[in-house]
Amino acid sequence: MKKVIPTVDVSKFIKGDTAQKAAFVEELGAAFSTVGFVGIVNHGVSQTLIDDFYTEAKAFFALPVDTKEQYEIEGLAGQRGYTSFGKEHAKHTDVADLKEFFQIGQESDSTNIFVEEKPKFLALGKELYQTFEQTGGALLRAIALYLELPEDYFDAKIKEGNSILRAIHYPPISSEPASAIRAEQHEDINLITLLVGASAGGLQLLNKQDEWQSIQTEANEIVVNVGDMLQRLTNNSLRSTTHRVVNPPREMWHLPRLSIPFFLHPIADMDLTCLENCVSENQPLAYESITAGEYLNERLREIGLKK
Questions:
Q1: Which of the four, 57, 144, 145, 255, has the lowest number of CB atoms within 10 Å?
Q2: Under a CB-based contact definition with an 8 Å cutoff, are residues 163 and 264 in contact?
Q3: How far lies 63's CA from each of 60, 113, 167, in Å?
Q4: Distance, CA of 45 to CA of 107 (rounded, Å)
Q5: How many CA atoms lie within 13 A of 290 on its CB side?
Q6: Which of 138-152, 163-177, 292-306 has the lowest mean pLDDT?
């Protein structure tokens, strides 16, 4: 079966010689310009750490609902701690996704929520967060070079940024859903998203021919996609591709699904004004100027997490 997304080897950029590094930049840039998604291998994220965090996340979501709801904190717009089932929806619909989730921010952030019943959960999440941040930073350095910017262009913009590690639980489907699927079609808000393999399939992207295609990953492969902030910054040169998580066949409704995306966000005051070298007569300016913080707040309201 033909792969829907290309696979690239991050070690070529981090450890390779000048030619290997340049080749990686072109591979990643081409993938993000055309598909908007890529699979990465040799990324440096420990499989043991991923597995340990999965185990703790699974144990958290298995807690009684009233216990989990103690960690749903009013006023945090779902950006830290628990968000209960049926709260979030895609921006174009009011029908809630079939999921619940838990979010972790910067290690230094005092609003991170410690779960007393699962004391390893937050510690492992912070460790995974930092590892994802390092790998994501390397990818953004490659993207900067592809865009003919200084390699460190994004470094200061993502240091202590508003990135989020989210553990998502899609419970077993017990009855015919009215209209919702596990996660309705959407685009991510941030710069890039890193997603470690979900415990069950269902992730699909919408290609340029308006066809839904299922994304299959190899062992130890991380899926990375462009978010709307990066698409906006590059005036649509890099694609924030529409994607969704569909319900499994009826005979697999009893299986839950767990996935761990890392949404790499910049600091709130990053200027998302389109880059001058991405604007031309053939590619006219598509977006007004806005900061990352303003854009994030706008989108959080659209998806029902912020009033």
A1: 255
A2: yes
A3: 5, 16, 14
A4: 17
A5: 17
A6: 163-177
Task: Write the DSSP symbol of residue 113.
Answer: P
SS3 88: coil
Q: Is pTM beyond 0.70 here?
A: yes
Q: Give the whole-angstrom CA distance, residue 210 versus residue 202.
A: 17
CA atoms within 13 A on the CB side of 187: 21
Nearest to 35 by CA among 243, 246, 287: 243
Phi, psi for 120 (deg, rounded to 5): -80, -15
> Which residues, listed in sequence order, are joined to residue 84 by a DSSP beta bridge?
none
Strand partners, 259: 168
- The gap between the terminal CA atoms of the chain, to the nearest Å, is 45
Question: For tokens 């004004």, what's the residue?
Answer: 273
Q: Which of left, alpha, beta for 208 (phi over 0: left; psi -120 to 50: alpha)?
A: alpha
pLDDT digits (tens, 9 = 90+) for 205-240: 999 899 999 888 877 899 999 999 999 999 999 999
Strand arrangement, sheet containing 183-186: 183-186, 243-245, 203-206, 212-214
Average pLDDT over residues 285-307: 90
The CA distance from 222 to 237, in Å, is 23
Phi-psi region of 255 (alpha: psi -120 to 50; beta: other; left: phi over 0): beta
Q: Is 122 helix (H, G, I), strand (E, B) or coil?
A: helix
Pull the structure tokens for residue 127.
């460790």
Whole-Å CA distances, 116 to 75, 123, 127, 131: 21, 12, 18, 24
